[in-house]
Amino acid sequence: MGDSKITYVQCDGLAVMKMVKHCHEESQGNMEIAQGALLGLAEGNRLEITNCFPFPKSTDENVDEEEYQLAMMRRLRRVNVDHFHVGWYQSSDVGNFLSLTLLESQYHYQTSIEESVVVVYDTQKSAGGFLTLKAYRLTPQAIAMYKDGDFTPDALRQLKIGYEKLFVEIPIQIKNSPLTNIMMLELQEMVKEEEGSHFLDLGTAGVLENHIRAMMDRVDELYQEASKFNKYQQTVMRQEQDKHRQLNKLAQENASRIAKGESTVPEEDILKQFRPLPVPPRLNPMIISGQINTVSQHINQFCSQSLAKLYLTQALQSAKESKETK
Prior knowledge:
16% strand; single chain
């Protein structure tokens, strides 16, 4: 199936609940990243996710992860459940999901299963009342970059790739059965009006603090990467200056040798002393820049929602005060 044919992901409510339960259990227990397999099928331009199961924990050395996944899919097939592998899911914290491991894993998934996606669930934002479930796929430029294995500045410039072109987001639609929708409507009617006021909670300091801390950590890492690259450029510049100095000295010596009728010394002897320095890879700085961009977008979105809550509660408070004075 071609890359352009998958335009949206349709996920069953049961699969979403399984992902949410697993991610929150891991985040509350040992603060590890929760990962699992997504099962379903591709139908036209739609990728359907109908089931999922978690990967075994990394601490369990007695379990072969690949054999475990094959055994799970065989058992699901026996009970007539969709068993086709269509991707994987992972938990994140404060939107900090972009990493070298995620890029490598999705590359292997997408090259072996062309329509596969990675679904990222943000536990902290969802715990604050905002369900954050997003699906991503690697762009053709990112696949070509990882396939070549060349992460030098020149290679990235030729591919015209930056952090904003590593992944493309695929819209997600959550689908429930009609009976589930009826039950949700009945539960909504059972909730009293005063019990819904927690959605206007203005306690934003803790969430905003976590976002700012994550931003500070990423900026520090990017500064360290920039310092390494600047040091490399300074070393290359010094090497070039030394090489030109040695070549100029050799040219003067050869000129005097020619005047005396002696044989000249070849420049290759000098050039062999100055071998090209290895260029530091730029993939990690690109990923860190993507993390900074993601956290910045989350801060912008969170502040906009907080301001909307503030103005809404101010209007409600004014209406309440005017009602009490009458």
